[in-house]
Amino acid sequence: MKTKRTPGCVGLTLLTLTLGMPLSWAAETKPPEVPDLTRDGNAAKLAADKNVTSHDWNLGPTGARGWMYLEEGLTDKSRQILITMVETNSPADGVLAVGDVILGLDGKPFDQDARIAFGRAIDTAESERQKGVLPLIVWRNGPSTPRRAGKQQPVALTLKVMGSYSATAPYDCAKSAKILDEGCRYIAAKKDYGLFSLGALVLLASGKEEYKATVQALTRGAAAFVEKAAESDAVQGSAWDGGYASSTLPAATRTRTGGSATRIKNPPKLIKLKNR
Questions:
Q1: Alpha-carbon distances, residue 149 vs 135, 144, 146, 153, 188 (angstroms)
Q2: Which of 20, 64, 230, 259 is surrounded by the fewest CB atoms within 10 Å?
Q3: Cβ of 92: how many Cβ atoms within 10 Å?
Q4: Structure confidence by residue, pLDDT tens digits, 5-22
Q5: Which residues in 65-81 are b (16+ Cβ under 10 Å) and which e?
Q6: DSSP readout, 209-275?
């Protein structure tokens, strides 16, 4: 005689098996602890780790870059900023150093997302009222220096006074216009257009005649990229490269520069890209 097995029996069996299993799998899914960069040499280790320094953040007009703790792509649990780079002759030069850890602002430790708090502090510092002063709490490991003789102490960066954002920023905003103008001049002088030539889009967005020739030259280079794609089954690069190259063509040649569109010979209907 066959015995009917009810869903309840099946569920009880599965529960029994689950309870009898080791709990190591549960431990593996537990979120990692947020590292304290001031302990166990963590700052020095991470500052020397290329996997870390390749995923750092630009710290705005300070001239420094920094790493913050990420969880699922978010920095909401970060309360420290590890300095990974300091640009020569920038506001941070001589005040911050690689391996320093920013612990807070204006005498108070970070009590929220360090990235967001730092960005807001920059805006405040650049105001006429603050006169460009950005006060920080910084921890540094290692021997004392003439400028700083301890591990944790207050320091201050002096930023350029840019005013405050308007309620409609970036539209009808004097500060936004200043930032765009200075950024364009920096990009044009350095001739470094960055990842996917996004700097070309910045020059394009300015609408200024002085950058027209540069944008047109970069557009012709993008056209050559797409033509190469049409001649082969695969392109050395990524979908990001091809996407930006092809999408900026009509905008660059028609919308801003006023010239005729750069024509692509034998445009591909479908491009197979590597490293997608």
A1: 17, 4, 7, 9, 40
A2: 20
A3: 26
A4: 444 444 444 344 444 445
A5: bbbbbeeeeebebbbbb
A6: GGGHHHHHHHHHHHHHHHHHHHHSS-BSS-HHHHHHHHHHHHIIIIIIS-SPPPPPSS--S---BS-
Both tokens assigned to 194: 């960055």
Number of H helices, E strands in the chain: 9, 7
What stretch(es) of the chain map to CATH 2.30.42.10? 42-158
pLDDT digits (tens, 9 = 90+) for 61-105: 999 999 999 988 899 999 999 999 999 999 999 999 999 999 999
In sign, the C-alpha dihedral spanning 133, 194, 172, 258 is positive
Q: How far apart are CA 200 and CA 223, in angstroms?
A: 14
Domain 42-158, what fold?
A: Pdz3 Domain (2.30.42)
SS3 101: strand
Q: Please, what is the angle between helix 198-206 and helix 212-231, to 10°? A: 140
Whether the model pTM is above 0.85: no
Burial 24-47 (b: 16+ CB within 10 A, else e): eeeeeeeeeeeeebbeeebbeebb
With beta carbons less than 8 A apart as the criterion, state whether 237 and 275 touch. yes
Around Cβ 215, how many Cβ atoms within 10 Å?
Answer: 22
Judge contact between 228 and 271, C-beta under 8 A.
no
The tokens of 208 are what? 């200024």
- Are 181 and 206 in contact by the 8 Å Cβ rule? The answer is yes
Residue with tokens 């005040």: 95
